[in-house]
Amino acid sequence: MDTRPIGIFDSGLGGLSAVKAVFQNLPNEDIIYFGDTQRVPYGSRSEKTIEAFAREDIAFLEQFGCKLIMAACGTVSSVAVNATSKIKEPFVGVVKPSCVAAVKATKNGRIGVMATSASINSGAYDREIHRIDPQARIFGVSCPVLVTLVENNWIDEDNYISKEIIRRYIKPLLDADVDTVILGCTHFPHLAPIIQSVTGEGVTLIDSGFEAVMQAKKLLFENGLENDKSHIGTAKYFVSDKTQNFSVIAKTLLGTDISDNVTFSETARQAIYG
Hints:
This protein is α/β, with parallel strands linked by helices and 274 residues long. Helix content is 47%, strand content 16%. β1 (6-10), α1 (16-25) and β2 form a beta-alpha-beta unit. The longest helix has 16 residues, at 47-62.
């Protein structure tokens, strides 16, 4: 048994889709989550800035002696390869497991990718999908406003404005006849019910946070790092700005009140800002 926690980080609330998947699929594991709410979003930043942010986020989590670190952030997973490749612990991003799942799911070889501008411009999803299946056709759309919708809790399936924004983003993918869409930013699975209502049931949605957790589960097993099944997993949350909004929205996203476990950390601020 290895009782060290899993470290998960994201620019804000999006990575909670991965946390939820850990609750459901790795219930015996402890979690340290860091949301960089001071600097969200990452997707509109330069590669150099994203790389720097990723290094600082990783450094914060490493203080807790994490046995595995997960970048529950499509932007970091796509762009900050120089930072994530230096992690000493087992590492999981969202790009590779999402692409593997998409290639398995597609029936017509036409795969859509919804992600941040930085992720789409990096070409990371295209390269990984083509590495697995050189014949696949990939259609990417940059969806920066969707991050804002989640960060402001506009995720209700009946929200007309959110649905119209999503409809506009998805139209090029539906016009391209994709049958599978990767939700390449971990914010986006929180909008999955609205997205599915727009695409219709004939399109398979790939939840990047869930796929990353499935890869983490595999790595923990292969390296003998699982917690004992008698252990009940716990979660602690750290943010770099304002705990109140984070806690309120997280209650909706996770279905549980985490306010007692959320900390604005001076340690986090010092690790990130010096």
